[in-house]
Write a structure and sequence with these properties.
The protein starts with 14 loop residues before the first helix and ends in a 7-residue tail after the last helix. It has one domain. By secondary structure, the chain is mainly α. Helix 1 packs antiparallel against helix 2. It has a two-stranded antiparallel sheet. It is built from four helices and two strands, in the order αααββα.
């Protein structure tokens, strides 16, 4: 069963689902900023900052999913929840549509990974606060 708002490879979540992904990104942003500040104040190993790639990846992916109204997990698992009145995801029945969603999911994951690697690398250039 697919809703009228579902667009294969384009949109597979509703506004409520998009807000959940944005909230996840904001929580990851707060955690990242606190961790970075701790590293800058107390730990003098600039390469240790590269562990922030995980939270930064979550931030980037959450923002992308929210802005594009597309959940990569739903895309990879052949589901959608784009109807505004829907509370739970529905299975995608057409193989052609699920393949489009899977390809788009992989594209968004790779984009998020590349951006998070670049940002994490740039964080190593911030001088320590002493």
């Amino acid at each position: 069963m697919s809703s009228k708002n579902y667009q294969p490879g384009v949109c597979n979540i509703n506004k409520f689902e998009a807000k959940k992904r944005l909230m996840t990104a904001l929580i990851a942003l707060i955690i990242s900023l606190i961790t970075l500040l701790y590293f800058l104040l107390f730990i003098n190993n600039v390469y240790l900052r590269l562990i922030l790639i995980g939270p930064i990846f979550i931030i980037i992916l959450g923002i992308i999913q929210s802005r594009r109204k597309f959940c990569v997990f739903y895309g990879l698992t052949k589901k959608e929840n784009s109807d505004e009145s829907s509370q739970k995801p529905h299975q995608i029945s057409q193989v052609k549509n699920s393949i489009l969603d899977q390809k788009y999911s992989i594209k968004l994951i790779l984009l998020s990974l590349i951006v998070s690697i670049i940002i994490s690398f740039l964080l190593t250039f911030i001088p320590e606060i002493n």
